[in-house]
Amino acid sequence: MFGRINPYMRCIAAAMMLMTVALPLRANDLVVGKSAPPITLSTLDGKHIALSDLRGKVVILTFWATWCAPCQQELPLLSEYAREHTKDGLVVLGFSLDDADNMKQVRAVADRLSFPIGLLGDPHVPGYGRIWHLPVSFIIDRNGLLVDDGWKDKDPSWTQARLDNVVTPLLSAAD
């Protein structure tokens, strides 16, 4: 009934299907220099920390999982940096992509960190897109503006040098 499909049209159809599937992976509202999208961390102990309540602080949103080896390497570094710079106005919020079945492992990691942790629940985060690779972090300045988009980082893993270059200047900048 439909006859033979032109190979060129088949390629176009396949490309359109691929774009439809891949687009949500990267779809977000992030623009460096503009307001960061709202997000709230529901911590493991039942507290809620909204990004909007942290105005005046420098905020690192970090997304990780217990099964992510690079995450496990950078979390202690990020924790130590947060401990050292809390007095300077730094807040780190950790969003775990683990599910509730892994709560024991998540709590074991959280107990060693100096910043609050919560389960993300859904990898589709309004404004930030679908969290599809880990680790990924976003930096928000004291005015609530996005200053570092983790999706665009060539090497998104934290190192001391990267923290010193990206975050430390924000901590010493006046409000």
Q: Please work out how many helical segments DSSP would assign.
A: 5
> Which runs of at least 5 residues are low in confidence (pLDDT < 50)?
11-26
State the domain count: 1
User: Which whole number gives the mean pLDDT?
Assistant: 85
Question: What is the CATH architecture annotation?
Answer: 3-Layer(aba) Sandwich
| Spatial strand arrangement across the major sheet | 5-4-3-8-9
Radius of gyration: 19 Å
What proportion of the residues form beta strands (DSSP E)?
15-25%
CATH class group: Alpha Beta
CATH fold-level assignment = Glutaredoxin
Q: How can the largest sheet be summarized? A: 5 strands, mixed
Organism: Dyella nitratireducens
Pfam families: AhpC-TSA
Keywords: Redox-active center, Signal
InterPro entries: AhpC/TSA, Thioredoxin-like_sf, Thioredoxin_CS, Thioredoxin_domain, Thioredoxin_ResA/DsbE_sf
Condensed summary:
This protein is α/β, with parallel strands linked by helices.
What does this structure look like?
The protein has 175 residues and is an alpha/beta fold. The chain has a single domain, classed as 3-Layer(aba) Sandwich (Glutaredoxin), CATH 3.40.30. It has five helices and nine strands, in the order αβββαβαβββββαα. Strands 5-4-3-8-9 form a five-stranded mixed β-sheet, with helices on one face. A two-stranded antiparallel ribbon has the order 1-2. A two-stranded antiparallel ribbon has the order 6-7. The longest helix is centred in the N-terminal third of the chain and has 20 residues, at 7-26. The protein is globular, with a radius of gyration of 19 Å.
